[in-house]
Amino acid sequence: MNRFLDRPLQYKIVSICVFANVIIFVVNIFLLLGINSMSTEMEMVYQDNRHLNRLTNALSSVQDSMTEYLRSKTSDSLKTYYSSAQRFSNLTEELDDRVTDLSFGRMERNIKYMSQNYLNEVSLTIEAKRGRNVEKYRAYYDNATELYSYISEYITSLNLELFVSNSEHYSELTKMFRTYEFISFIVITIVMGGNIIIITNLVSTIILPLRKLVDSANEVAEGNFDTELLEISYNDEIGIVTKAFNKMVISIKQYIERLRMSIEKERHMQERELMMESHLKDARLKYLQAQINPHFLFNTLNAGAQLAMMEGADKTYEYVQTVADFFRYNVKGKTTEVTIGEEVTLVDNYIRILNVRFSGDIGYEKQVDKRLLGASMPNMVLQPIVENAVNHGIREMGDKGKITLKVYREDDNICISIGDNGKGISRENIEKILSGNWERKKDQNDNNGIGMDNVISRLRLFTENDNAVEIKSEGENKGCEVIIRLPFEEKEE
Amino acid sequence: MNTENTPRSNNKRKLNNKESFVMITTVIFVIVTIFLIAVSFSVSLKGFKRKDEAHEFDRYYVMITDNYKSDFWKSVYRGAYAAAKEDNIYVDLLGENFSKNYKTKELMKIATASKVDGIILYADETKEMTELINEAVEEGIPVVTLYGDNTRSNRLSYIGVGGYTMGREYAKQINNIIREKKTENSAEGEKNEQDKGIEVTVLVNSDARYAGENIQNIIIAAMQEGIEEENADGSEVSISIKTVDNTNDFSAEESIRDIFHMEQVPDVIVCLNETNTMCAYQAVVDFNQVGKVNILGCYASEPIINAIDVGVVYATLAIDTDQLGEKCIKALSDYYESGNTSQYDSADVSLINKSNVAEYMKKEDAQNE
Prior knowledge:
The structure holds two protein chains of two kinds. Chain A is of the alpha+beta class. Chain A folds into two domains: 2-213, Four Helix Bundle (Hemerythrin (Met), subunit A); 338-492, Heat Shock Protein 90 (2-Layer Sandwich), CATH 3.30.565.10. Helix content of chain A is 70%, strand content 9%. Chain A has 13 helices and eight strands. By secondary structure, chain B is of the alpha/beta class. Chain B has two domains: 55-160 and 323-347, Rossmann fold (3-Layer(aba) Sandwich); 163-320 and 349-368, 3-Layer(aba) Sandwich (Rossmann fold). Chain B contains eleven helices and 13 strands. Chain B has a six-stranded parallel β-sheet with strand order 3-2-4-5-6-12, sandwiched between helices. In chain B, helix 7 (251-261) packs across helix 8. At the A-B interface, helix 2, strand 1, helix 5 and helix 6 of A face helix 1, strand 1 and helix 3 of B. Strand 1 of chain A pairs antiparallel with strand 1 of chain B, so a sheet runs across the interface.
């Protein structure tokens, strides 16, 4: 069956038609054979009677020719006698001499033997006549004639008997023929019904995959790409189309997936950019709020610096210049990203300002891998951290306070470490700071307004890594270290 | 791969179910078609009993009688037929199938010319019959005479009934009638004293007169002997013989009716065959002589038995016809097996009268069923 169903569509349809036709053909042939055999039987019905009639004719011609010969003794009549005797003898030979329980069978047998006797008697008559034995041939003639009458009578009776039996037979046959007609009609009807059922079933089996394909195609057309993949039932044309359809559905699905991914990615990127910008803006705003009018300040500071130079106070000039540079950094209107080098310079400036303010109390140590200074990072990051370290770590330590800035490479990361040897931070506070739960004291005015939480969240956004910032503290009075890890990108080297 | 495969294989199974369903329907349909073809074909070829299918017999005997239509001969034929069939022999009652009615002698000629294997013949003692029997025997056909013999011929055997026994049985019945009459007369007084003698008429077939050894003569002789023994003086009984002309089909009836036209109607009529019994019975009824004329019949056909039952026929002698037929077949078979057989055999005879007729009827009914 499977092998059949795997054949091409055309082959299958033709096969089904051929099958149905062959069945009908075979049935018809057999019905025709039946009709043929019955009609043959009907033709044969009166055959026995015909044979008997021939026998009667032959018998009377023997008798007639003998009589004729006895009467006129012509050679013609003798010739006729011989030929008719031969014919009669041949016909009697055909008779059946078996004894059966059918009366006409036995009559046939008796006729056969009587005919032989009769022929014997007739030939004796002819012999006697030729030998001119008048007395004998008369006696023989009488015998023969008597036998002739018996045989004729016998044949007539047999004919009648056969006619009766044959008529019965004939009517029986006619009845049977009617029955046969009826049965044939029923057979043909059943065969036709069966054919219809089989063709319907086969065709529906063949069409079923096609119908499924149509359903599935409709579903896909309505936008449902998650339909079950169609099973390839047979390797016919429908199977091939189904296979192609499946492939198409799969590749459409894959394409849609890829498209979705890239959209997602782009959206994410945009989101990050926006966040960064907003945070920076936030930082700047706060800074500007703190320095009400930086331009005025710069100008003031520049005026101060020029005054110091004219007076020859180099140190004052330098200090004022540094302060100006520090504040200019924030007002420059830079983009969100700067190089590490710029940040480091800002820290340098800041420390220098502080040292002037606090008369060189803060020790500042710098270990920087210059190769990494070109790498980019978010701006306004290092200075707030250093400011934090100074304000909360080492302010009260006088000239013992020390800030360490390190830029180094660790595996695939650029590490920026800002350490101090101040009070340190407790573990709970570290947790609070990293999770953004730290509560700022409101009266704290001596910073430039950018909190650790802002710094940390900007770093996390930039690196897309929640562990971008690490705060280490060995405990009370053992100092603190803030480590920033930035991803190292080859091209920036 | 696996997760993908399971639903697919499920589907496949569903599809396979459909396929196998289609296949099974197709196969069933083809089988049904073949079956239908076979049925219709078998109808078309349903057997007609042709000669080829008919049973074939080893030997073929014919039985020749004077009247194949008579109950007596039919019943004998039935016995013979049944016995023959057991030995795979067929017996024909010759003459049945002819449109013309042939005489016994003609049938004999036909049988001889037909080269049958054996002839059972109701013969008579005519010379012509003797010649015909001899002719048949010359042709190698054994001839058994039945009921009527032809002693001078070369017939193989004669199967008849014991004529003497029959005669004595008739005599016994006549004596019974005489005794009954006597007691009747004495009861009625001496009124009819001069009318004491009893007339007995025996109906004899005309063709029996040719020869002295005919069974009828034996019966009559034995009957006379029996009556004389009982009535030593013989004055009371007078036996007369009435010849019934049976040369043509209707003459017997005429001859019997003649008796009743005579002045002296006999008291007892003895009939020696079925036809005569029937005619006598009808005549007694027609001439209103029931009770006055006693009929002693021969053979127990249904009307005769019924006549005994109603008292019209005094008694009848029933010949065991089955046995008669059977013995004929046995004689012929013996001849084929051993080349010889006994010259004479007889069938049993039993008396049926008012006392045992009911029993006989019951037995017949049982047999018929």
